[in-house]
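[step 3/7] fold_predict: job queued, chain A
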Amino acid sequence: MTEDKIEMIDIRVDTISQLFGTMDPFPFRERDLAKDADEYILSRARAIPARHALEILVHIPQAALDEKTPINLTEPFVKYFRFRAEALSRQLSELFAAGRLSLFIGLVVLLFCLLSGQALSALLPPGYFGDFIEEGLIIVGWVANWRPLEIFLYDWWPVAQQRSVYRRLAQAKVVLLGTPYLDASDDFIAKA
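[step 4/7] structure written:
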């Protein structure tokens, strides 16, 4: 990531509390960002090249700023994005553990099918029926390895990419800007 190019993610809200989950009694010290805000920030960050640094600009009406408004929003955002990245790391570890177990089971099934196919082929008279049984068991053995191959070739990529975006967001600076008014633009406007 290069610091020479900083990409901005703009968020417009009526109050700071709209950024944080309503179920969280301590939103500025804890890690729960509102679902809509999280989805919006994540989608915008995905569109920004990984080599660019991120900065989140929170626009709030000047009238909504008061002495209870936290000046530094970076800390709660960083905690939330780090928590999400760590949760995705655990999910990735669990996925790989399931993949290893599936691979072990799949290889055992494949070995059993190969040996059973050869044994049955040797017991049956030569012909199409013996070949059919042997080939069928080989197919069953390879199908048993479908899921581990799917995990190790495809399933882990989206989780790793999302984790990478959350790690980038955890490094983002969050700036609170008081604006005289809010206009309805295509930027995220949190709903009350």
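[step 5/7] annotate
The longest strand covers residues 2-12.
Residues 74-123 form the longest helix (50 residues).
exit 0
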